[in-house]
Design a protein that fits this description.
This protein is α/β, with parallel strands linked by helices. It contains 11 helices and 15 strands. Bound molecules: nicotinamide-adenine-dinucleotide and zinc ion (2 copies). Nicotinamide-adenine-dinucleotide (NAD) binds next to helix 1, helix 4, helix 5, strand 9 and helix 8.
């Protein structure tokens, strides 16, 4: 639903960002459907891949200035003082606020932000290309690190959409052998173009057996981005002995864990939630150096309801809302 709202005024310690672009994440769909136990307060403005120029700064703000290009991410703010914040795990701070969820986000012409938690967009990176990196990019880059794989190891990227198509690129830059898993042949063809060494269609035959065969015993790391519970059970079965299966997809519900296999094969199952501010800087740097590039389809904000209705298989990996320049 479109509404005219007044342009907010940044208070002390806040900044106002004039939006240039904002990616549409599958999380925005989960938010619209009320899929998760944590419910946002209605009404709210979704969008946590908003990129724009600082239009005004409140009193006491020194870390950014007017005209800087910043991103307003999912990790909108945190307390800065708890045991998690002190150890760079601010993503699990009990006082964390989430952009486009507990705080208004980037599906709007202006966004209020916390300057201590915005992404700093490197020069030369266009706002439309930067947008997917501040959620899909950082989440998969961090998720790959959380698998603890090393160059030459196999990684499975399950789900080759908005998150997965960036995960494949980060994994290749990190020297990994990549097996992409999806249920759409078009996504798998795209995964191959992005450098995947092996692709498996999860809707045919026994995908875990196909991965084990193609990787000679299973992948050292598995990153599940698919928003489908079936992919989670399959992902455990794709994990090599003593390997790590990292969960980032967030479909509502639970999935059965084959306990004996996990215990007897010493498999680690680990959740991962976006990334910290250093992960953000690193994830953006890969793109600034031209090593990772989001595959985007531009749409105006007015198309958002149509975008939400679209089946993802015939669009580019990430829809990015582009805002007219002032
Ligand atoms: P997307 O819709 O762009 O892509 C999902 C992909 O998964 C599609 O290519 C789809 O074909 C594929 N898929 C569907 N079912 C599958 C299955 N059974 N096996 C393999 N592939 C399958 O979505 P997205 O924007 O990439 O988001 C994916 C998920 O990640 C969502 O649940 C989202 O909420 C979550 N997410 C989590 C974090 C985090 O920090 N943990 C951050 C961002 C998004
Ligand atoms: Zn997201
Ligand atoms: Zn904290």
């Amino acid at each position: 639903m479109f509404q005219e709202w007044d342009i907010p005024t940044p208070g002390s310690g806040q900044i106002l960002v004039k939006t240039e672009a904002c990616g549409v994440c599958h999380t925005d769909l989960h938010a619209a459907h009320g899929d998760w136990p944590l419910k946002p307060t209605l009404p709210f403005i979704p969008g946590h891949e908003g990129i724009g120029l600082v239009a005004a700064v409140g009193s006491g703000v020194t870390i950014v200035k007017e005209g800087d290009r910043v991103g307003v991410p999912w990790l909108y703010s945190a307390c800065g003082h708890c045991e998690y914040c002190l150890t760079a795990w601010e993503t699990v701070c009990a006082k964390a606020e989430f952009g486009g969820y507990t705080k208004n986000g980037g599906f709007a012409e202006y966004i209020l932000a916390d300057p201590d938690y915005v992404a700093h967009i490197p020069g030369g990176l266009a706002p439309t290309y930067a947008a997917p990196l501040i959620c899909a990019g950082i989440t998969t880059y961090k998720g790959i690190k959380q698998t603890e794989v090393k160059a030459g190891d196999w990684i499975v990227i399950s789900g080759a959409g908005g998150l997965g198509h960036l995960a494949i690129q980060y994994a290749k830059v990190m020297g990994l052998l990549v097996c992409a898993v999806d249920i759409e042949d078009s996504k798998l063809a795209h995964a191959k173009r992005l450098g995947a060494d092996l692709v498996v269609n999860a809707s045919q035959g026994d995908p875990a057996a196909a991965v084990k065969k193609g990787t000679d015993g299973g992948a050292h790391g598995v990153l599940i981005t698919a928003p489908s519970l079936g992919a989670f059970r399959q992902g455990i079965g794709m994990t090599r002995k003593h390997g790590t299966c990292v969960l980032v997809g967030l479909p509502p519900g639970e999935f059965p864990v084959p306990l004996f296999d996990v215990v007897a094969n010493c498999i680690t199952i680990r959740g991962s939630f976006v990334g910290n501010r250093e992960d953000m800087a690193e994830a953006l740097a890969f793109a600034a150096e031209g090593k990772v590039k989001a595959d985007i389809e531009l749409q105006p904000l007015s198309a958002i309801n149509k975008v939400f209705d679209l089946e993802h298989d015939d669009v580019a990996a990430r829809v990015v809302l582009e805002f007219a320049a002032a």
